[in-house]
């Protein structure tokens, strides 16, 4: 089982879009997947069409017993390969700014009790560095950092990488997969400048390809379907890019196994 957190410390950069794109690529590739929606905004839960009235990640974090964890799991209409620990506004009560080790371990404890275990766990984190995001990093093998080519987003991804490196001091299994640059517009001078800045700052951690700004993403999310099922050329282009990103993520699991 490979566990990956998708995070940014700036809202509005498309973190949930990247999470859902990876979910779509995973089920398209036949990979059994668990989506954990840690963001109290619950956008991922809404998009994969989950019943929001049942048990949620907040209940799981209250008490990560096996029966509670598996009772909260839901199937999505997206695929039989996808199960979801739904988000909840109540999860904000677990977003303590200074959590202790026991609080940080609750999510990893819960994931370990999912039955049957999935091949891939994708965690959609909130855009803040409290207990929720830190518990995701503690539970994760890989961190996928998301940004867009703008001044404040670049600053946010710097802070996110610093948070990952700090968590690695006590959780050595965690590694940054890299930085996904989202919503790139070709031939935009500001975007080209910020892309250069990102490459100077993060070097090979900047992942290819950059994700272009395409209406197909919003259209597929609005229709609550995987990007791989949206019937436009723009969707096929983006889906192929998420396939590449998933391949990079899954290949990193092989290195993890050999290590």
Notes on the protein architecture:
- The protein is α/β, with parallel strands linked by helices and 259 residues long.
- It has a single domain, classed as Rossmann fold (3-Layer(aba) Sandwich).
- Helix content is 46%, strand content 15%.
- It contains ten helices and seven strands.
- A seven-stranded mixed beta sheet has the order 3-4-2-5-1-6-7, with helices on both faces.
- Helix 5 packs across helix 6.
- The longest helix is centred in the C-terminal third of the chain and has 26 residues.
- The two termini are 15 Å apart.
- The model has no long low-confidence stretch (mean pLDDT 93).
Supply database-style keywords.
Rossmann fold, 259 residues, alpha/beta, 10 helices
Task: Report the strand count.
Answer: 7
* Residue-averaged pLDDT: 93
Helix content: 40-55%
**Count of the domains:** 1
Quick description:
With 259 residues, this protein is α/β, with parallel strands linked by helices. Helix content is 46%, strand content 15%.
SSE layout and pairings?
Elements: E1 2-7, H1 15-28, E2 33-37, H2 43-47, H3 57-62, H4 66-72, E3 74-76, E4 79-85, H5 101-112, E5 120-124, H6 131-139, E6 142-147, H7 151-168, E7 175-181, H8 189-202, H9 215-222, H10 233-258
Parallel strand pairs: 1-5, 1-6, 2-4, 2-5, 6-7
Antiparallel strand pairs: 3-4
């Amino acid at each position: 089982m490979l566990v990956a957190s998708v995070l940014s410390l700036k809202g509005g950069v498309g973190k949930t879009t990247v999470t859902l794109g990876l979910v779509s690529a995973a089920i398209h590739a036949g990979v059994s997947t668990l989506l954990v929606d840690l963001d109290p905004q619950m956008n991922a839960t809404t998009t994969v069409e989950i019943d929001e009235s049942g048990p949620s990640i907040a209940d799981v974090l209250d008490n990560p017993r096996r029966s509670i964890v598996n009772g909260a799991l839901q199937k999505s209409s997206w695929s039989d390969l996808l199960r979801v620990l739904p988000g909840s506004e109540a999860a904000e009560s677990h977003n303590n700014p200074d959590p202790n080790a026991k609080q940080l371990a609750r999510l990893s404890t819960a994931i370990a009790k999912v039955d049957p275990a999935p091949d891939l766990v994708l965690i959609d984190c909130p855009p803040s560095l409290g207990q929720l995001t830190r518990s995701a990093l503690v539970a994760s093998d890989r961190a996928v950092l998301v940004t867009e080519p703008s001044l404040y987003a670049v600053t946010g991804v710097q802070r996110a990488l610093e948070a990952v490196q700090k968590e690695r001091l006590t959780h050595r299994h965690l590694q940054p997969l890299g930085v996904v640059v989202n919503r790139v517009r070709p031939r935009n001078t500001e975007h080209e400048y910020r892309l250069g800045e990102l490459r100077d700052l993060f070097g090979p951690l900047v992942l290819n390809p950059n994700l272009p700004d395409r209406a197909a993403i919003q259209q597929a999310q609005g229709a609550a379907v995987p990007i791989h099922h949206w019937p436009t050329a723009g969707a096929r282009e983006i889906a192929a890019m998420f396939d590449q990103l998933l391949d990079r993520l899954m290949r990193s699991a092989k290195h993890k196994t050999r290590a």
